[in-house]
Specification:
By secondary structure, this protein is an alpha/beta fold. It has one domain: TIM Barrel, CATH 3.20.20.100. It contains 13 helices and 10 strands. The longest helix has 21 residues. The chain is globular and about 55 Å long. The structure holds NADP nicotinamide-adenine-dinucleotide phosphate. NADP nicotinamide-adenine-dinucleotide phosphate binds next to helix 12.
C-alpha cells in the first residue's frame, strides 16, 4: 500500500481507503462479513475509514468503533459525517444553515456518533450535504473550533452533493476546512475543472468517493439490474440512469479488455492517476473486493495513453430527483 499526504493535516493516509455506506444501509449486508473485510483491509495497510451517522443510523459507525478497538496498535484514521437536521439529501438552493446544520445540531450529532462508535474522538468530521453560501455564516466554523478545542474532533471537511463539484469551491478557498469528499471517477471528471485547482491552492485534502459510480463502473450491471426492496440502488439506477450508465460502461469494456485489466481495476487506477486525490474510498463488503481493490495501490496509475483515452469518457450529469 502506498500512502499520500492528507492536505494540510499532514496525515499519511492509504491511497485506497474504505467506504462504509453499503455495510450500514444496503440490502444484503452482514456485520460478521463486514468486520472480516474491514480487518483484512487493516491487515493490508488500509488506514482511512469513511462512515456516517446516516449509514444505518449508527450501524456503520458501530462497526468502525469495533475495528478501531481491535487494532489499537495501529494509527487508523476515522471519518464520519453529520446528517442534515432536515434529513434531506441533497441540500437544495435556499436550504439554510438552520435547516441543516445549526450549531446545537452539530454538537448533538458529533456526540451521538462518538457514542455509536464508542470512541473518544474522530479524526475527521464532515458535513453530509453542503451549500457553498453557508461559508458566509461563521456559526458552523465556530462550533467546529469548540469541538476541536474539546478534543472531540481533529479536522473538518465537506461532503459535496452529487454532481455539484462547484458547490464547495468558495468554502475550500475560505481556508476553514481541511478536506472535501467528492464523486470522482471515469464518468464524473468535472471536479478537475474548479474544485481540484482550489484544493491544490489551499492544501485541502480530496477524498474521491463512489469510484465505481455505485456499481456501473464495475461492469457487472445490465439494463435489467434490480435490487431488493428498500435498497438505495433501485432509486439511483432508475431506468433513466441505468440504461445510459450500462451503455456507457459497455463502451469501456473493450478498452479494459485491450489493456488486459478488469473494469474495477481500470476504475481505481484511473483515479490513482490524479495527484490531488489523497485517498479513494470504494464501498466494499466482500473480502475478495478488499483484496483486489487494495492491490491496485501497488500496481499504480494507468499509462498516460490510457488515461488520455479515458478522458473522452467524461460524462457531465446534472442532479435529478432520483440522484440523491
Ligand atoms: N454523500 C456522501 O457523502 C456519500 C455518498 C455516497 C458514498 N459515499 C461514500 O463513498 C463510499 C463509496 O461509494 P459507494 O459505496 O456508494 O459506491 P462505489 O464505491 O462506487 O460502489 C460500491 C459497489 O461496488 C462493489 N465493489 C467494490 N469493489 C468491487 C470490485 N473489486 N469488483 C466488483 N464490485 C466491487 C461493492 O460491492 P460489495 O459492497 O458487495 O463489496 C458495491 O456494490 C461509500 O461507501 C461512502 O463511504 C458518501
Amino acid at each position: 500500500m502506498n500512502y499520500r499526504r492528507f492536505g494540510r493535516t499532514n496525515w499519511k493516509v492509504s491511497e485506497i481507503g474504505y467506504g462504509m455506506w453499503g455495510m450500514g444501509g444496503w440490502t444484503g449486508s452482514d456485520d460478521q462479513e463486514s468486520l472480516k473485510s474491514l480487518q483484512r483491509a487493516v491487515d493490508l495497510g488500509c488506514n482511512f475509514f469513511d462512515t456516517a451517522w446516516a449509514y444505518g443510523e449508527g450501524r456503520s459507525e458501530r462497526l468502525l468503533g469495533q475495528i478501531i478497538r481491535a487494532n489499537k496498535d495501529k494509527r487508523l484514521y476515522t471519518a464520519t459525517k453529520i446528517p442534515p437536521k432536515n434529513l434531506q439529501w441533497p441540500s437544495r438552493r435556499g436550504s439554510s444553515l438552520d435547516d441543516c446544520f445549526p450549531p446545537e445540531h452539530i454538537d448533538q450529532y458529533v456526540r451521538s456518533s462518538l457514542d455509536n462508535a464508542g470512541l473518544d474522538n474522530f479524526d475527521l468530521i464532515q458535513f453530509h450535504v453542503w451549500e457553498d453560501s453557508w461559508v458566509e455564516d461563521d456559526r458552523w466554523a465556530k462550533k467546529m473550533d469548540e469541538l476541536r478545542s474539546e478534543g472531540l474532533i481533529k479536522a473538518v471537511g465537506l461532503s459535496i452533493n452529487r454532481w455539484e463539484p462547484w458547490n464547495g469551491v468558495r468554502t475550500v478557498r475560505s481556508g476553514l476546512i481541511d478536506s472535501v469528499q467528492v464523486i470522482y471517477n471515469i464518468f464524473d471528471q468535472n471536479p478537475e475543472d474548479d474544485l481540484f485547482p482550489a484544493c491544490v491552492e489551499m492544501d485541502v485534502a480530496v477524498i474521491a468517493r463512489v469510484p465505481f459510480d455505485e456499481g456501473s463502473l464495475t461492469g457487472t450491471l445490465t439494463k435489467d439490474s434490480r435490487w431488493p426492496e428498500g435498497d438505495f440502488r433501485n432509486t439511483y439506477f432508475v431506468a433513466e440512469n441505468l440504461i445510459p450508465s450500462v451503455a456507457r460502461a459497455d463502451t469501456l469494456k473493450p478498452i479494459a479488455e485491450r489493456a488486459g485489466i478488469s473494469m474495477p481495476e481500470m476504475a481505481l487506477r484511473f483515479i490513482l492517476g490524479h495527484p490531488v486525490v489523497s485517498t479513494i474510498i470504494p464501498g466494499m463488503r466482500k473480502l475478495s473486493h478488499v483484496d483486489s481493490n487494495i492491490a491496485m495501490s501497488d500496481i499504480g496509475r494507468l499509462s498516460d495513453d490510457l488515461l488520455a483515452e479515458l478522458t473522452e469518457h467524461r460524462w457531465d450529469r446534472l442532479p435529478a430527483k432520483w440522484s440523491n
